[in-house]
Protein 1
Amino acid sequence: MSLALSARLAARELRGGLRGFRIFLACLALGVAAIAAVGSVRASIEAGLAREGAALLGGDAEMEFTYRFADALERDWMEANADRVSQIIDFRSMAVVPQDNGAERGLTQVKAVDDAYPLIGTVGLDPAIALDEAIAGNGAVMERVLMDRLGLAIGDSFRLGDNDFTLRAVLTDEPDGAAGGFGLGPRIIVRIDALDRSGLIGTGTMFNTKYRLDLGRDTELASVADDAKNRFSDSGMRWTDARNGAPGVAEFVDRLGAFLILVGLSGLAVGGVGVSAAVRAYITSKTSVIATLRTLGAERRTVFQTYFLQIGALSIVGISIGLTLGAIAPLALAPLIEDRLPIPAAFSIYPAPLLEAAIYGILTAFLFTLWPLARTEDVRAATLFRDALSRTRWFPAPRYVAASGVALALLIGLAAWFSGTWRLTLWTAGGIAGALILLVLAALGIRALSRRIAPRMRGRPIWRWALSAIAGPREGAASVVLSLGLGLSVLAAVGQIDGNLRQAISGNLPDVAPSYFFVDIQKDQMPGYLARLQDDPAVSRTDSAPMLRGIITRINDIPAQEFAPGHWVLEGDRGVTYAAKTPDDTRLVAGTWWPEDYSGPPLISFAAEEAVEMGLSLGDTLTINVLGRDITGTIASFREVDFSTAGIGFILTMNPSALAGAPHSYISTVYAKPEAEAQILRDLAGAFPNITAIRVRDAIDRVAEVLSGLAAATSYGAAATLLTGFLVLIGAAAASTGARTYEAAILKTLGATRARILASFALRSALLGACAGLVALGAGLAGGWAVSHYVLDTGFTVIWGNALAIIAGGVLATLLAGLLFAWRPLAARPARVLRARE
């Protein structure tokens, strides 16, 4: 009966329209729309990858091997299970264009293919000729960026290793390009038999072979995959099939989407501040109505249910608007998004991300409206006078506190479950909670400080008026500092993280990073290679090490992925080296190094930090597949490995006899003066055509290019959060219009000019904005440091440009919002305002 009566009362109240709830609806709708849009785009990309999985992969399935070809047993299995098989060799090399004054060189990612390539899809070429025709004999196709870098035109020649190739077309579309992952150089495609004549694929050369399989329509993909993994996974074979044709891309999209949704939750939290403020203002305006209901015999439960149903109905409206915007926006922007995506996307309306966004919206609305609604219980029948609700207790009854705790735990738990990243979710939740607490304390602090300073501002009326207004309860200092501060905190954290990540990659390169990485150096070439560098005064340092690649397949005789699931060391192959004695720059943190003449069972020195993450201990055994051969060794020591210097760093180092007989090459880093780099490259590449040189700055530029896209995506999410905060700020300014009108009327009556009153309004807005900006800067710096230190494992320095922009943004935002709602109070006539007040 009570609920039915509450529903009728709520329906009557809602007949008054949405006055006072526009900001409420906007905040809730914007937060939900941001989350729904990100989820919809992610679902569209995932659907596109699933739909085009075979085309992206270039076949129904792929078997990949590191630094070796498939053996007879593996080839026989492929022939028995597939209708067609296509072999691909993929590796890095140097494309060389001989010139009169030397030679022009460019790093490239070479793909050597057979007659069957591509099994699915079509290679795009300009001019539009068949791939077979373009790469016949010593023909080749090349991406435009490499052509321009080398100054080539169609019909010109270039060299790979010991073989000359003729450029016959520009490579415009590589159908299986997304499955290839991140490459350091533009693509060249040649025939396998032409590559054989180049001498580039030799003993120990770093290359991958991929065998694409056309399995036929009636083949059950799952059973074939299980059979292949059971037979060959311990031999270092990596299986990929059309169910996830670009696993690296899919994983990146999933993680980026999860991160952006967490950023969206931050925006929803900012909107929650506005929702709470709107509900609090609404309940305050209904004090007389609530008191009247209590006078007529309404129970506390009936009153609470009445307004709970009202706010619930409005929340559903706001969430529905957000879901509609979040579903429609990706569809409307689909052409623009598809142009910027290197992968297919199937844009449509997907229920799962919309349901996720709706759940977030419902829980956020419940969490931020429960406490203001609970205050209706404090209105008694006898409190039919102005501002009665302002003197109620701040903490509601324990049952409401408990319900809020349950809702918060449910929100965090669902966010962690949906995102699949518990650690990042907890960090985000802790950061938001910490920022909110800091901002609440800051709002209370600025009110208390203003209350103490205002009386001392004799002779400075503008300052005194501004500080007195901030100290009072009507200016809404808490709402301003909370809403704007939290939005600026997210933006500050994103800016600091992005700046430090870029700085970690490129900022210190001249001091710590090598000029070049040289790979594929054969053992018999090392004396000549070192002789060229040792006599060069421009070379300050040269580091070299044997280089093999291996896949950790088992740990303590348990499948590696079961022992340490999801760890990056186990994802694909890793560099393996050997050393008889402890390298000069190595510091052991546990265990001992083997004797120089050790020839017993294989021993391993493992990277200490990664060992802790994987749960490894001294004495554990690792089975490593190197070129199809299993080597089981015992961990004898842990050592520090610093990857931040961009130098040589190996997760795994073994004793020399453990890898005796395994074909391998050498890797080397050269530290040289910038002006000498070009000559060093010309001399070494001319003497050893098979060597591949990777210029560290070029690699850094490629990584920075990827990071710029990531930074743009996160900045958009942070901007949505800031926009929500600005909406809340406008709501707070609009709510204080009545108080400012009365204040302006009093001041005009006492002789104040409009200019002075406007200056007072602007000053209080600027002070609140500066406070919000300073606190947001502190919270953003703390959040940026935590993510940089604990998640990204990089150093941290304050990016002062971003930091100062945050403070300036806070001042500007509050000024705009304050001045926007200042004209009405200034235009009001004092007599009319004061008579109405009486």
Note: The chain has a mean pLDDT of 80.
Protein 2
Amino acid sequence: MTIMAAVATLTGSVGLYPLFEKGSWFWASVGAVLAVSGGGLLARRLRLPAVVNLVFGLAGLLLYLNLMYAGRDSWLLIPTPESLRHLADLANGGWQSANRYAAPVPVLPGIELMTAAGVGLVAVLVDLLAVRLRRTAPAGLPLLAMYSVPAAVRDDGVSWLAFGIGALGFLGLLMTDARDQVGGWGRAVTGRRQSEVPLAGAEPDRDERDRQAPQLDAAALAASGRRIAVGAIAVAVLVPAAVPGLQPRGMFGIGGDGGGATQTVTTPDPLVSLKRELTRLDDSIVLTYESNDTQAPDYLRLYALDKFEGDRWTYTDLDSQPKDRLDERDIPPPPGLSAVSSREVMTKIHVRPEVRNMTFLPVPYAPSKVSIGGDWRVDERSLMIYSLRDSAGGRDFTVRSRRAEPTTGQLAAAGNYPAEIVSRYTEVPKNVPTEVRQLAQDVTAGSATALSQAVRLQRWFTLSGGFTYDLSAPAPKHGSDLVDFLLRSKRGYCEQYAASMALMARILGIPSRVAMGYTSGSEVRPGEWVVRSRDAHAWPELYFEGTGWVRFEPTPSGAGGQGTADAPRYSLPAVTDGDGEEGETAPEQDDSTPTDDGAPTAQPSAPHRNDLDTGRGDGAGQDEGHEFSLTPWLAGGTLVLLLVAAPMALRELTRRRRWAGLAPPPPGAPPRPRAPSGSPRGGDPAGAAHAAWREMRADALDHGLEWRSSDSPRATARRLEATLKLDAEGALALGRIARAEELARYSLSPSTEPPERLRADVRTVREAFAASVGPGTRWRARLLPPSTVEQTRTTFQAAGNRALDVRTRLNRIPTRFTRH
């Protein structure tokens, strides 16, 4: 049951796989489950109460986590205040990282610690319910809780294969419990089958059929149980997959068009994924591309976030239909692009195979034709290109796009906005604080055109506003976080800059949205570019009639900001007012541009470098791979082996002490000290007989044989001989031990059997015990002898009685003094 409880927990934890980028979390969970199982097994071998079983499981989990994640701060294997403080800090960092990233999250040390602790707590409950309390069915509830986490976090939920693996583990636990429960009643009793009519001339063999009937009945019941179990799993997997609407991708991810029905497209929070990319320490390559653009290529856009919800930007749900497929329609022209010139750009993109779950294509704006295999679709309003089932990882595709080339005069002279653009892209929630609204007016005071307002906003963020680029700033989760960024801290990364400028533009009546994707990256050869994870970026897009959506860059660039960001030319003109009076000039930014307040700027290429060696911090600056170390596993394995070997070692120690001092002391030798309780003194025949009898009793208990304390030695020998069917040598050995114990108890003349012979007789009887039981019982007698558990329990009870006696005597002392 202990083994199956651990297996059921581990198979249930397989359902957590969609939450993580790598699989190292599973091996950490394996160690946690083994530690919990070892603690629970030790508590049960000592026959302690159920509450203590829970405490032992939690203690085993704590020792494991302390050893794995805070071993350097511990005293040997014992937790110390410093190690516990380190665990708490690591867990706090893991919690912050889990809230910061979208699934699948990187397996940072803090996140791995939280996962191992969570799976370990489930193992504690399963071990307590299924093994200690024998309530196996309720043990499925904590196992089910592990499935609820990915189901709540991810829209895809858990795959049918992961669910089937967990279900099989739980059914195995139920079957093991049922076998133990039924086996406790002995052999199953079944009725006889009705005799079959024999063939003519054949003699029916009723005895043979009667002997096989119970076995056939048991086999039929077991086969029926297995068929029911498999059928239940099949129904649980197939029915939800076949019900329309429950699986957006169809049965097992095949199909999913729903017969032409509209489907709502959802993805993890794009801005949360952005922070994860920016804080990756490996700075891995995401994609490479070739472009025929004569200028620096434009940004590669993934998302267009058009909806501001008061605390974060997101995009309106996409109602996908089969007619939106790229192979069934042309990409619509970009909205608003009509009055300015544009040129066609060809881009060949290769996404690395390591990139996962990229269901939106990174393409330059505005795409006019995309050549890619698979089911890819386009959103008519935003021109985002996405898929319901495919990922861009490992794919090569070609994008033909139109790149607008507006002049500052064309943008300044842009006409009025269409009504649908105004209603959709200028909406501002009522809960936006008044000070933010007033700040937008103050920063752009004196500007009469939308372009001059946009340029003043960009210049305020990058030059005159006193802002500092800082990747360690937390992502905004509440409206107050945005106010704090704009008015007080002024520290953040591209998400805060882009979100704030787009909001302030809407306050001024300029249609705006937040785009997210990658900068143009770095040119490695003429016309060939590389985009890395650090090139992930967010920027605002503002709408100008005649040009359409225009990119701006409020995030500082270069070494003091987003390394590969660059502001477009039209956003760096001389700002003119409506009456033609020229205002201040917004110079182009360079890598050495300081902030107005002279505050040092953070380097985006090395966030939290000081945390790499210590393994501390919030997890964002720690090594995502969490390099595997063999030392903690060796130490943990040694601890488990010591716990497992403790009963066996105690049994061997007891046996040696029992036979200590059997040989008489040599002549003239000083008298030996008093032997331990139960150990014969040298030259004591009665002590040797008692030692042999106790040793034989312990061997009988270890091998699961019945021992009746009320029987006399002679009656015990007769019963054991009849049960074991001993040979002549074994029967003589058993008889000598019983006769020696009988004489030692009841006769004034104890046995004259030498202790060496009694010890050899005990060994012979032990071998007979082992030969009479199965291999499982024999191994239990060697590794986890029940007699040791009984001895330990008796020792604890005696110690408790002594402590109670001492306490009683101490309580009587004040009474005596009072009487005197």
Note: The two ends are 61 Å apart (CA to CA).
